[in-house]
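Re: that chain you flagged

S.,

Sorry for the slow reply, it's been a week of failed gels. I finally had a moment to sit down with the sequence you sent. For the record, here it is as I used it:
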Amino acid sequence: MVDKEPLIPLHGGYRKLKSFQIAQLVYDVTVRFCDRYIEKRSRTHDQMVQAARSGVQNIAEGSQASGTSKKTELKLTNVARASLEELLLDYEDFLRQRGLMLWDRLSPHRVSLIARRPATADDVAAWVKELHGCDGLGGPVGVNISKSKSSTMSIESRTLFAELSANAAHTLIKVACSLLDRQLAAQAKAFEAEGGFTERLYKQRQLMRRRDVQKQQTDEN
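Prediction finished late last night. Pasting the structure tokens below so you have them in one place:
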């Protein structure tokens, strides 16, 4: 019933959102990737990590704000989407500038990673390692390797790890962006149909006024 609609509806719950879970995975993978492949004191390192973090934080903040402002939720979700798009371009730049391959949408490697449904950065690292077909010498996307083993890796092997790792991160970002596109569409539709806090407050006040009038009429009778 309309008169039982809460002024501040249930909100938050962002940890259950698939978009949040994938964005958080992208953040963890990006931190490891940047520490391994991007100069730590460079601006690019900081920007990539911050863009990944922004994707996670703005999904959470938008979800939490949705109780009182659907408009803010929509805005922050869009900021998260824009941050991940920026990060996507950073990975594409990394590959292009080094003459490395960027997987296309129908790449079997991309399809394989999505089907694997990795939950952690370690899961992604293990998948990349399997794809590389290495024998324990190397560590993509943050798998620790000793200095002695690292020195024995060929340049070709390290380059391949970089290519696979960047493409894995790129694939996960694409998944997160797709989920956020659908989330934004749903939020826009809900905002259009239901309005936000101001509209709910107005409805509540109108309802209270009608009740007061009905009570007064009953008392007079």
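What I noticed first: The radius of gyration is 24 Å.

Talk soon,
D.
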